[in-house]
Design goal:
The protein is α+β, with helices and mostly antiparallel strands. The chain is 30% helix and 18% strand.
Amino acid sequence: MAKKRKLHDVRMLTFQPAADDMDNMVLALGQKKTILKHSKDLEDLKHYSTIVRTKDLDSSLMVVSDSSEAVTLLLSNQIVAFLNKNTSSVEYIHLSDLHTGAARDR
């Protein structure tokens, strides 16, 4: 009997705001293991973000950002409740207006 492969849904949204519409931002949220890997591998996360402690977020999830204020603004009580209810469905969310390619040591 053939082994069934687990399929994953991927949703990617890319948008280009006008230059003056928003401040610079780097933020990633997701499963701890994935976020730690991306924090080492992706240039924007490696050089500009740090771990941001969030008291209400499920312990299996982690947030890294260049601004704790951005985390506070984006993670409303409703968003945190949704994420906590669906932790197994969220691998990671990455928001950035900087180059996100492979990290290079400087």
